[in-house]
Amino acid sequence: MSTATPTIRSVRARAVVAPIARPVKTAFGVIEAAPLVLIDVTTDQGVTGRSYIFAYTKMTLKPLVHLVEEIGRELTGRPIAPFDLMAAMDARFRLLGWQGLVGMAVSGLDMAFWDALGQTAGQPLVTLLGGSARPIRAYDSYGVVDPVADANDLKRSLEQGFKGIKIKGGDGDAANDERVVKGVRALIGPDIALMIDFNQSLDPAEATRRIERLAPYDLHWIEEPVPQEDLLGHAKVRETSPTPIQAGENWWFPRGFAEAIAAGASDFIMPDLMKCGGVTGWMRVAAQAEAASIPMSSHLFAEASAHMLAVTPTAHWLEVLDIARAILAEPVAIVDGAVTARGPGLGLVWDEAAVARYLV
Q1: By three-state DSSP, how is residue 76 classified?
Q2: Whose CA is closest to 111, among 68, 60, 78?
Q3: Which three-class secondary structure state does DSSP give residue 23?
Q4: Annotated catalytic, 236?
Q5: CA–CA distance from 212 to each of 38, 177, 223, 241, 247 (Å)?
Q6: How far apart are CA 13 and CA 62, in angstroms?
Q7: Buried residues in 29-47 as b, exposed as e (16+ CB within 10 A)
Q8: Which residue numbers delimit the Mandelate racemase/muconate lactonizing enzyme C-terminal domain (predicted)?
Q9: Fewer CB within 10 Å, N- or C-terminus of the chain?
Q10: Which residues of 120-156 are buried (b: 16+ CB within 10 A; e: fewer)?
């Protein structure tokens, strides 16, 4: 184990389209496979820090690869001190703004920097952050489902010990949402948390109507009922909702969460490591959640999120939507419906044969 601070020697990014076990249907279309950008940060000590980001569509893969490598080139030779590097990237993109692809690239690099530090120290990231690895309660995340056609998959989730199931709505009318929620609730029983995600597909008035209609089915939360940037709309829906409102996967960096919390936009929050500023940003968001007594869950990136939720004072749920399983040598492990952080660093190791197969 080295005691010297490592420096950045090189940054490499690769684009893959990884198969996923279940296509994810949302109100806006179907995700059939996972377009990912794999990030490798090599240090002067021969350690490689790894992370990945989710491009949502193949269209953004090449721009993201280019951004990650260009930003990495500018940072080459600098010590891996993530807070300092985040400040440098903030200054670099202050005039441009760093939402969108730039924000994703910055966040992905931050995760890789922290992974490199964990590997250099020979410790899991959670330990490096002052916590300890522990099982984090997880829910299995689905797209739009049919209670009959998808019954076997849903039962398999219960057999894995999941105590929560999330489905998506908003792809049809209110009657269809009720049919699906009613069917899934009957299938999983009263003791499993059931969440529904509208993926920003409704306006506040329609969201209020649908939430009222779904109230008898004891939903654990209603996720992103209206467009993510409509903080006042979220707050308006929340005022009368009998079910807690969840949001945050599309709020950018700690400032975005500060504005959302000030607006009273949500009962719960769920940062996405790729949009909130990576590990560095997550820690700042977690402090806000603690100060406001807001339960905080994760979005995607189960491997890294298990580390982060273990040091989050208001940790709530970890989302399992296993988009990287096909390219990892050691995919995320579900034990009794929970995920425990693994190391060193983030515990990510590429299956290079699979990476070569899915490279684009």
Answers
A1: coil
A2: 68
A3: strand
A4: no
A5: 42, 12, 14, 7, 18
A6: 10
A7: eebebbbbbbbbbbbbeeb
A8: 147-244
A9: N
A10: bbebbbbbbbebebeebbbbbbbbbbebeebeeebee
Instruction: Show the tokens assigned to 277.
Output: 């500023």
Residue 81 corresponds to which tokens in the numbers above?
Answer: 């001190």
* Choice among 236, 299, 307, 316 that is catalytic: 299
Q: Using the structure block, give the residue that is written with the tokens 């916590």.
A: 131
What global pTM score does this model have?
0.96
> Which H or E element spans position 245?
strand 245-247
Q: Which amino acid is at 163?
A: K
**Residue 43 and residue 116 in contact, taking contact as beta carbons nearer than 8 Å:** yes
Distance CA(281)–CA(30), nearest Å, equals 29
**Separation in Å, CA 340 to CA 21, 132, 333, 343:** 21, 10, 8, 10
**Dist CA 68 CA 47 (whole Å):** 18
The answer to whether 297 and 317 have CB atoms below 8 angstroms apart is: yes
Q: What mean pLDDT do residues 256-262 have?
A: 98
Catalytic residue among 166, 168, 236, 275: 168
Active site residue 299: yes
User: Could you give the CA distance from residue 123 to residue 159 in angstroms, rounded to a whole number?
Assistant: 32
Q: What is the pLDDT of residues 283-310, one digit of tens each?
A: 999 999 999 999 999 999 999 999 999 9
Whole-number Å distance between alpha carbons of 145 and 72: 41
pLDDT digits 0-9 by tens, 190-243: 999 999 999 999 999 999 999 999 999 999 999 999 999 999 999 999 999 999
Question: DSSP characters for 260-309?
Answer: HHHTT--SEE--BTTTTTHHHHHHHHHHHHHHHT--B--BS-HHHHHHHH
Inform me whether the pLDDT recorded for 1 exceeds 70.
no
Write the CB contacts of 78 (distance below 8 Å, at least 6 apart in sequence).
Answer: 7, 8, 84, 85, 88
Q: How far is it, in rounded angstroms, from Cα 260 to Cα 272? A: 15
Six token digits for residue 233: 């709309």
- What pLDDT is recorded for position 3? 65
- Do 245 and 266 touch, CB atoms closer than 8 A? yes
